[in-house]
Amino acid sequence: MAKKKNLDLEQGKLIVFSAPSGSGKTTIVRHLLKQKELNLEFSISATSREKRGDEIDGKDYYFLSLKEFKSNIKNNAFLEWEEVYRDNFYGTLNSEVERIWAKGKHVIFDIDVSGGLRIKRKFPEQTLAIFVKPPSIDELKIRLKKRKTENIDKINMRVAKASAELATAPLFDCVIVNNDLEEALNEAYHKVDSFLNENK
Question: How far is CA 96 from CA 60, 105, 110, 130, in A?
Fold first, then answer.
């Protein structure tokens, strides 16, 4: 992949949604993507992990081998990346943001806390970083159990990580508490709409 250090930021804005797993950020992002007037497109992350279930390369994630992922890091091909668990990398390729901007759209991310903050730090003016908060850690655990996608050890690991992630909430531009989903969807819509229409 060609060496790429800087993105041309004249083209669009970046909308970041971060949250502990189970907070509902994916539901909010999907809702916003359906609002055509916002002109958003989803940023597909790259990962070095194996596919799960019926995941599709280029739709759910860009699935890269560990070697490919590390080579892209070396070539500065990522806007942000992180080793979430050992040899388990996730990141956003510069080419993905450029692909979306080339269509004249704004980029929306459903991304972990560290990645979200890295994007905000790199592009403070172009980025709206929103943290989605669960009503409580107990409620988060209930939601993760209801998914029935992971065993109790994995759930406990996510809950432990959530406590550390919740401490980063003040670093984001705004926090949405997802207690009532309808209210959270409305709040997210208004915050994103007003950010995209700034300076018009």
Answer: 13, 12, 14, 20
CATH code given to domain 14-196? 3.40.50.300
d(Cα 142, Cα 46) in Å, to the nearest integer?
29
**Interatomic CA distance for residues 18 and 168, integer angstroms:** 10
Kindly report the number of other CB atoms within 10 A of residue 170's CB atom. 7
In whole angstroms, what is the distance from residue 78 CA to residue 143 CA? 32
Is 70 exceeded by the pLDDT of residue 8?
Answer: no
| Phi, psi for 95 (deg, rounded to 5) | -65, -25
* The 88-93 sheet, strands edge to edge: 62-63, 46-47, 88-93, 78-85
**Span 164-175, pLDDT tens digits:** 899 999 999 999
DSSP character string of 121-146: HH-TTTEEEEEEE-S-HHHHHHHHHH
pLDDT digits (tens, 9 = 90+) for 18-33: 998 888 899 999 999 9
CA 197 from chain centre, in angstroms, equals 21
Considering the entire predicted model, what is its pTM? 0.87
